[in-house]
């Protein structure tokens, strides 16, 4: 989870490595750090200035791959959590402070 410590410049280098150098300004001007990548998805990318739908899908898939999260199921029940366990954990880690820094992911064994 080294990406949690990425600066805006590290995120820009990662975007370049994915083959999208023309989007580096979208990420750096919006101060997207590794912790903020947790919130980057197809709904958020247009606010950054990325509107090409194919690029949005590809970047979102790369972000999910980096984070180790799955694509959200749009047919999920409203009774289910909004994200998988890793996604919920990463949302908690995206915050700053001692509490977020000390958070750890613990595997649970189903009954």
Automatic annotation (TrEMBL):
SUPFAM superfamilies: SAM/Pointed domain. Pfam families: SAM_2. InterPro entries: SAM, SAM/pointed_sf. Signal peptide: none annotated. Residues 6-69 form the SAM domain. PANTHER family: STERILE ALPHA MOTIF DOMAIN-CONTAINING PROTEIN 15 (PTHR46829). This is SAM domain-containing protein. It comes from Oncorhynchus mykiss (Rainbow trout). The gene is LOC110522459.
